[in-house]
Amino acid sequence: MSPGADTLLAGVREKDPRAIGRAISIVEDGGPLAASILAALEHPCCEAALVIGVTGPGGAGKSTLTQALIAHYRTEGRRIGVVAVDPSSTLSGGALLGDRIRMMRHALDEDVVIRSMATRGRAGGICAAAGAAVRVMAYSGCEIVLLETVGVGQAELAVVHLADLTALVLAPGLGDDVQAMKAGLIELVDAIVVNKGDQPAAQALLAEMQAVAAATHRAVFCTSASDGTGVAQLAAGLGELADTLRQSDRIALRRQAARSIEVMDWALELLRPELKAAVAALGPLSGEPQALARLAIARLKATEE
Ligand SMILES: Nc1nc2c(ncn2[C@@H]2O[C@H](COP(=O)(O)OP(=O)(O)O)[C@@H](O)[C@H]2O)c(=O)[nH]1
Ligand SMILES: [Mg+2]
Predict the structure, then answer these.
(1) CA 66 – ligand 2 centroid, Å
(2) What are phi and psi of 215, to 5 degrees?
(3) Cα(60) to centroid of ligand 1, in Å?
(4) Domains and their CATH numbers in the chain
(5) What's the rounded Cα separation, in Å, for the pair 261 and 144?
(6) Lowest CB count within 10 Å: 105, 117, 121, 271, which one?
(7) pLDDT of res. 92
(8) Which atom of ligand 1 is closest in space to residue 223's alpha carbon?
């Protein structure tokens, strides 16, 4: 291993926030140092962390709930990681900034590691980057990593598959688009959280979700993330769910599936420069783009034989 990676990983192990931040940036960018860091992260301690997905439509209260869960886990003395994946904002602004400010409550707590990632405006695969960040956090001793994603686009839904178990956060009054995407989201998750339980309209949504849950074997929880009501019960319920999934080997199976998503992401990343060159080598491009893409791939394969 290169000496740079060695020193950095020692820093991560010692929970040095700057080393953790740097290690995540390096693995996100996927340069030469990334490979040696990623290799070192194939460590049993990285398997021990439980990765909990928190997904759902924008405005449901995912970030508020994530923060409430952090506060709860911290009272239990656990070290926590958070990877927040946001489709809408670039790295410098947008919704993430608001989340970051809210998370400031935990900013001085060195046992809370928070990382935001934008899906838009980035070159690399989001699953590869998020998976790597989760492992860096686990290596630094995080027992639980919360993976917050907005359940809308394909990339964000793919990230859900990196989690050991996932909770869907819903809230009353989010409108018709949410209504339409609910069914598809429920299929992907293990638990449904009806948040904003303090609002009267939450009762009808809760009743609806309890009926859905009875038919689909999902656990249902009701929280009011802004005042912490129901958060301890949710944390306990997710813990029990994780135990059940572990006992039936389903977490191991999910991790295998997650691995294949990450490998696919890296494969596409690693191929990108050669593909770019192959497309450039086609010369002036006229004609049907998919046919040209096939031609570029065929030429690339031919040069390898
Ligand atoms: N009344 C009420 N408002 C909440 C609750 N949880 C979150 N909110 C508010 O809902 C809005 C969206 O919350 P946020 O956590 O940013 O949602 P996200 O987009 O899913 O991450 C914010 O204004 C929160 O203060 C809750 O339990 N009750
Ligand atoms: Mg949010």
Answers:
(1) 9
(2) -80, -25
(3) 6
(4) 1-40 (no CATH), 44-248 (3.40.50.300), 261-304 (no CATH)
(5) 21
(6) 121
(7) 47
(8) 27
Task: Give the pLDDT band (50/70/90) at residue 105.
Answer: low
**148 Cα: distance to centroid of ligand 2 (angstroms):** 7
Whether residue 67 has its Cβ less than 6 Å from ligand 1? no
Q: Which residue intervals of the chain are DSSP H helices?
A: 3-13, 17-29, 32-40, 44-48, 62-75, 95-103, 126-139, 154-160, 176-188, 202-216, 231-247, 250-281, 289-304
- What's the CA gap between 131 and 154, in Å, rounded? 16
Positive or negative, the CA dihedral 77, 78, 79, 81 is: negative
pLDDT at 93 over 50: no
For residue 44, give Cα distances in angstroms to 115, 166, 192, 274, 286: 22, 22, 30, 34, 52
Structure tokens at 127: 């699953």
Is the minimum distance from the CB of 47 to ligand 1 under 6 angstroms? no
pLDDT in tens, 45-91: 888 999 999 998 888 999 999 999 999 999 999 999 999 987 665 54
Q: Write a three-state SS string for 200-263.
A: CCHHHHHHHHHHHHHHHCCEEEECECCCCECHHHHHHHHHHHHHHHHHCCHHHHHHHHHHHHHH
> ∠ CA 83-85-88 to the nearest 5 degrees?
155
Residue 231 CB neighbours (<10 A): 22
Quote the CA–CA distance of 225 and 64 in Å, as a whole number: 6
Closest by CA position to 35, among listed 44, 23, 45, 48: 23
Between CA 138 and CA 13 the distance in angstroms is 9
Q: What is the pTM of this model?
A: 0.88
Q: Report the nearest-CA residue for atom 12 of ligand 1.
A: 59
